[in-house]
Protein: DUF2795 domain-containing protein
Amino acid sequence: MDETGWNDVRDALTDLDFPADKEQIVAHAEGRGAAAEALRLVRGLPLQTYRNISEIRSSVPLDPADDDRQTVDQKARRARSPHTHRIAEHLRDLRT
Structure:
C-alpha cells in the first residue's frame, strides 16, 4: 500500500470512536465520503474489533507487489516461471 492510500484511510477515520469493529469502521469511512482507495482498504480489513488507528494500520491488507516495486507484468511473469518447485516465489530469477 502506498502512503496516499493510508493517508486517505487515516483522514477518513480521524474522529472514529474506538474500540470499533470492521463494520463500524467501514460505515464511518463511507459516511465521511472517503476516497475509493480508502474504502477498498478498510473493506479488506479482517473481521475483529480494533482498539486504535495503529491496529487498523497494521491490519490493512498489503499487496506484496507494492513492497517489491513490481509491475503487474513482472508479477505475472514470476507466477508463470517454470521454477516453481523448492524455490520461494520472491527468490525466483526473472531475468530470462
In short: The chain has a mean pLDDT of 80. The first strand starts at residue 20 and ends at 21. Helices lie at 3-12, 22-31, 36-43, 53-59, 64-68, 72-80. The radius of gyration is 17 Å.
